[in-house]
Specification:
This is Inhibin beta A. It comes from Sceloporus magister magister. The chain has three helices and three strands; from the N terminus they run ββαβαα. With about 100 residues, it is of the alpha+beta class. It has one domain. It has a three-stranded antiparallel beta sheet with strand order 2-1-3, with no helix packed on it. The radius of gyration is 18 Å and the shape is elongated. The chain starts with 6 loop residues before the first strand and ends with a helix.
Length: about 100
């Protein structure tokens, strides 16, 4: 059984809080599915037949954030074709802490 599509594109967006300085006319732009406050910072086409780790280069985005005096970054990961191909995204973070919690119980 061959899948019809073997490549999907994974996109990483940096979410930004929009400044609330525009008081007139800006309400019309809010129905753009929230994309107005997001910047595409990385994208990668990957093969769904291979289960592997993918690293997304975000150094310049992090540096820009630090240059602005900020210390946290909200991101959104999108994969429009993942559902139709049966692929799923797995994100890892703070795994070590979870292992310590399990050992402590």
């Amino acid at each position: 059984a061959n899948r019809t599509r073997t490549k999907v594109t994974i996109r990483l967006y940096q979410q930004q809080k929009l400044p609330k300085r525009n008081l007139q006319g800006m309400e019309e732009d809010t129905n753009l599915k929230g994309e107005k406050g997001e910047i595409l910072i990385s994208e990668k086409a990957v093969d769904t037949r291979k289960s592997t780790w993918h690293i997304f280069p975000v150094s310049s985005s992090v540096q820009r954030l630090l240059d602005q005096g900020k210390n946290s970054m909200d991101v959104r990961i999108a994969c429009d074709q993942c559902q139709e191909t049966g692929a799923s995204l797995v994100l890892l973070g703070k795994r070590k802490k979870k292992e310590e919690d399990v050992e402590g119980k």
